[in-house]
Amino acid sequence: MSNSTLHPLSRILPTKPYGPMRSPARALGWLSIGLGLAELAMPRRLARIAGAPNAPRLTRVFGLREIGTGIGILTSKDPSPWLWARVAGDALDVATVGAGIVTRGRPLRTLASVAMLLGIAYVDMKVAEGAPPAKKREKRSSRDYSDRSGFPRSAAEMRGIALKPSSPMGRPQGTATAMSGSPVQPLVRAGEPVGSSLP
């Protein structure tokens, strides 16, 4: 079958996402879609198994979120934004399932579900950190300024330069001239012996 007769998704899915975490990202994408479909089909049963609060509408909303995230991972060149969305969704799932400790009355089952969700969140975070393609990672890499000293010249040339006499504002050394318009006159002119200007 030629590519022209394939469904658009059938042409996109085998080639995306890009990057070093392509296989783990694809696995997480399909996991999201599968979990989302299960949450849409049997929300009460999943809530009972996980020890989560019995809230079918909320569970179905979470299912739609999972499906959207999975499709985003599988169809985007850079899956990292969608993987970070999974991490945020994992935090929301942990908070929701954790509420089942009070509402369900089965703390051991709920704690086991929370521990499993935390493990999934850790995997999602690690895959998201390594998922960007090489070109994008190069742009994000920090610049190296270790070879810069902050001086306009080398350290050997700048050593002791502050101790050398310099003329202020480019004036020749040894002259004392008053500022233009200043009523104050210099007491001693250049080249005159000390005390010659006194009466």
Order of helices and strands: HHHHHHHHH
Largest sheet: none
What's the alpha carbon Rg, rounded to whole Å? 36 Å
Classify the beta-strand content into a percent band.
Answer: under 5%
Number of helices: 9
Q: How many beta-strand elements?
A: 0
Distance separating the two termini: 114 Å
Q: What would you call the shape?
A: elongated
- pLDDT < 50 runs, ≥5 residues: 175-180
The level of helicity is: 55-70%
Mean pLDDT rating: 74
Question: Strand pairing plus helix content: what structural class?
Answer: mainly alpha
Description:
The protein is mostly helical and 199 residues long. The chain contains nine helices and no strands. The longest helix is centred in the middle third of the chain and has 24 residues. The chain is elongated. It starts with 7 loop residues before the first helix and ends in a 41-residue tail after the last helix. 20% of the residues are buried.
